[in-house]
Amino acid sequence: GDSVTQMEGPVTLSEEAFLTINCTYTATGYPSPFWYVQYPGEGLQLLLKATKADDKGSNKGFEATYRKETTSFHLEKGSVQVSDSAVYFCALSDPAEGGKLIFGQGTELSVKP
Amino acid sequence: EAGVAQSPRYKIIEKRQSVAFWCNPISGHATLYWYQQILGQGPKLLIQFQNNGVVDDSQLPKDRFSAERLKGVDSTLKIQPAKLEDSAVYLCASSFREGTSIRTDTQYFGPGTRLTVL
């Protein structure tokens, strides 16, 4: 079945630093990748997604490009803030798997002032 | 628009007891999912409903877990009897408005129910 591998955490950065969280996947069909975020004490929220190859999803200063040739969807942000501290999950939706989301293990980000 | 509602938010039980969780999806969403999130891991699908029919329950431990979706709206997930390893957050999500591609549709998650089995 499909699987998602993302960078292990925790990741600790200073405010205004550049962020990259790597995500790669294996899939049997033509999937769509997503990034979800879980802030402390809150539920999962969609951060961004891509619908076709080479699409770039973006939201709140975060970006990720769907690279079908390298089966990757790395998350980036040019300048992180303390409020970005959260757990970030890469996920995949594959019609060959019925549309369920397959999640990576999550990467905890801590941003220090 | 109201989000996905879940209750209770927290539950503590002894092993071998039973427990039930409730979910009310976003109005108009035909597809409902239950995920289990064990501490330090990503969520894993337990069961997926399309309207009131089961689409995928391959990862549901059917000897102890059961779920139903009445009239294609609300859903309940039950565990009976609970084991220590069932301690987790149980997440409900909904998606798939009519006419949307299943591949790209966004799933919206509720706040989850944190279950502790002692």
SSE topology:
The complex is a heterodimer of chains A (113) and B (118).
Chain A: E1 3-6, E2 11-14, E3 19-21, E4 23-26, E5 32-38, E6 44-49, E7 56-59, E8 62-65, E9 75-77, E10 86-93, E11 101-103, E12 107-112
Parallel strand pairs in A: 2-12
Antiparallel strand pairs in A: 1-4, 3-9, 5-6, 5-10, 7-8, 8-9, 10-11, 10-12
Chain B: E1 5-7, E2 10-13, E3 19-24, E4 31-37, E5 44-50, E6 53-56, E7 65-69, E8 75-79, E9 88-95, E10 108-109, E11 113-117
Parallel strand pairs in B: 2-11
Antiparallel strand pairs in B: 1-3, 3-8, 4-5, 4-9, 5-6, 7-8, 9-10, 9-11
How would you characterize the overall build of this protein?
The complex is a heterodimer of chains A (113) and B (118). Chain A is mainly beta and 113 residues long. Chain A contains no helices and 12 strands. Chain A has strands spanning 3-6, 11-14, 19-21, 23-26, 32-38, 44-49, 56-59, 62-65, 75-77, 86-93, 101-103, 107-112. Chain A is globular and about 45 Å long. The termini of chain A are far apart. The mean pLDDT of chain A is 93. Chain B is mainly beta and 118 residues long. Helix content of chain B is 0%, strand content 47%. Chain B has strands at 5-7, 10-13, 19-24, 31-37, 44-50, 53-56, 65-69, 75-79, 88-95, 108-109, 113-117. In chain B, strands 2, 4, 5, 6, 9, 10 and 11 form a 7-stranded mixed sheet that branches. A 4-stranded antiparallel sheet of chain B has the order 1-3-8-7, with no helix packed on it. Chain B is globular and about 40 Å long. The N and C termini of chain B lie far apart (37 Å). The mean pLDDT of chain B is 91. Classes of the chains: A mainly beta (113), B mainly beta (118). Chain A binds chain B through residues 4, 30-32, 34, 36, 42-46, 49, 51, 89, 91, 93-95, 98-106, and chain B through 31, 33, 35, 40-45, 48, 55-56, 91, 93, 95-96, 102-112.
